[in-house]
Each structure stands twice: as structure tokens, then as C-alpha cells.
Design brief:
Elements lengths: L1 H38 L6 E4 L3 E4 H9 L48 E3 L20 E2 L10 E2 L13 E5 L21 H5 L6 H13 L4 E6 L4 E5 H4 L5 H5 L22
Antiparallel strand pairs: 1-2, 3-6, 4-5, 6-7, 7-8
């Protein structure tokens, strides 16, 4: 009898963890909407402050969420793999955190449960930095101050109901000095998920296995209008239709020409 109950219990636990994650993202969505309403723009992905160090989008949301990005738990931290619990900590995420304290430079990049749709289809290394996502346009690469990045105006988002704002992180083991640790990418977009940078292809295969375990293979995402959906990975990162690609971009166009591999339409 116990053996028969185990699958049902596992499913119930998975559902509860996913529901808690969606609640987190709903709160993040409310914070993003409130910030955009107050400043008529979305928080920039990151830039360097002369006195405060590197500031990421979540640092701008602290007054709205009442939470900070979790303290570091990577190999070089004093709390290696410690469990975290707040609005930025999905309890079904088994990776490490890093970069949460803007005033204390880390041995790693900014990693954790959730990623920001900072660049849309223009991608991390595209010549048109961030113009299609929410993270702002980089006037200088990298942006060394607020003057070097132009925020994404709220009015640029043509269809808030369809545009992805943030969601469960793409898992890339070994991200920036985390060695073999699982690490959640700070950005979420179709280019980043499907075509990792050179040297990361092998780790992405392991990352995909972890994504299949988390939420049963679904990514929880919050859209610019604040609603949250749990979407299968192969649907979220589908590039076979323009409809699927449009949800990454603030102009609600597919921009297939900006995909790193425009001829690759294989399932994720």
C-alpha cells in the first residue's frame, strides 16, 4: 500500500512546490508592474554604481517586494548550499545563489532561482543590446554607470499580456566560478536556453536534466501584465513559430533573424 501511495505523494509535493514558486513570481510581477508605473520604465538588468557596486534588477525591486536576493551559497561562500527562503527563492531549485549583495563583489556572477527577460531575442551578446527585452539598452558595453544604459520604457511593451517578464532560471552548471554546482542563469530567453556560449554545451545537457526534475519539466513564468503560467520547456523555448518567439520581445514581433541559429527548429 505504501508503495502505491509514494507516486501520489511525490506528485502532491511537486504541485505544492510549483504553487509556491508561482506565488513568488506573482509577487515579483506585482513589484515589476508597480516599479514600471512609478518610473514609467522597467528596472535595468544591471549597471555599475560608483559607490554601491553592481546593481541588478532585483535591487531596484527591494522596496516593492520587501525582500532581497538570497545571500550567496556557492562553493566560495561561508554558507555553501544553505537553504534559502524568500520571494526570490524557489524551493524546488537545487542550485546555488550568488551576487545578491550589491556592495560586496562576489567570486561568482549573479545566479539563483529566477531569471529576467532582459534582452529578448536580441540576446546576451547581440549588437543591439537589450532593445527587445526589459533590461534596457546598453549604450556602452559594459555599462559602468546609470548614464550608460537606457531603461525600457513601459510604453515600449506592445502586448503586456503576451510578453514574458521573468521566470524559472535556465540551469547552467559551473556558472562563473561555481565549479560543478548547479546555477540558475540571471537571464531567461530563447537564445540563452537553446544555444549556450562555447564551452557550456556539455553543462547545458546536465542543466536540462535538472530542469526536467524541477516542476516536472515546466518553467513557471510571469508576464508583464502580472499573470503567471507553468509552461513546458519545449513549448517555452519553441522557435518553430513566430507566435512562440513574439512573447520574448517588447515590440511583439518574432525577430527570427536575431536567433543564433535561425535554421535550428528542433524541439528543446
Amino acid at each position: 500500500m505504501a508503495a502505491l501511495l509514494l507516486p501520489a505523494l511525490a506528485k502532491a509535493k511537486r504541485s505544492a512546490l510549483s504553487a509556491a514558486c508561482k506565488s513568488n513570481l506573482r509577487q515579483i510581477g506585482i513589484a515589476l508592474s508597480s516599479y514600471a508605473h512609478d518610473f514609467e520604465a522597467y528596472p535595468v538588468y544591471w549597471h555599475q554604481e560608483p559607490q554601491d557596486g553592481r546593481r541588478y534588477w532585483v535591487h531596484y525591486l527591494e522596496p516593492y517586494t520587501g525582500s532581497r536576493w538570497p545571500p550567496s551559497t556557492h562553493m566560495w561562500s561561508s554558507e555553501y548550499k544553505a537553504k534559502r527562503s524568500n520571494v526570490y527563492a524557489c524551493q524546488d531549485y537545487r542550485g546555488v545563489y550568488g551576487g545578491g549583495d550589491a556592495q560586496k563583489p562576489d567570486a561568482t556572477g549573479f545566479v539563483g532561482s529566477y531569471g529576467y527577460n532582459a534582452f529578448g531575442s536580441s540576446g546576451w551578446l547581440a549588437k543591439v543590446f537589450g532593445e527587445l527585452g526589459l533590461g534596457g539598452r546598453w549604450i556602452q558595453n559594459p555599462p559602468v554607470g546609470p548614464q550608460d544604459i537606457q531603461p525600457c520604457k513601459q510604453s515600449r511593451v506592445v502586448n503586456p499580456v503576451e510578453m514574458i517578464a521573468a521566470g524559472d532560471a535556465v540551469i547552467i552548471p559551473g556558472w562563473y566560478g561555481t565549479l560543478d554546482d548547479l546555477a540558475g542563469s540571471p537571464v531567461i530567453d530563447v537564445n540563452w536556453a537553446r544555444w549556450p556560449l562555447p564551452g557550456q554545451q556539455g553543462s547545458r545537457e546536465r542543466g536540462k536534466k535538472e530542469e526536467q526534475r524541477r516542476h516536472g519539466g515546466r518553467f513557471n513564468v510571469v508576464f508583464c501584465d502580472g499573470h503567471v503560467e507553468g509552461i513546458k520547456a519545449r513549448t517555452l523555448f519553441d522557435v518553430s513559430t513566430d507566435e512562440a518567439l513574439r512573447r520574448w520581445n517588447n515590440d511583439n514581433l518574432s525577430h527570427r533573424e536575431l536567433l543564433r541559429s535561425a535554421n535550428d527548429t528542433q524541439p528543446y
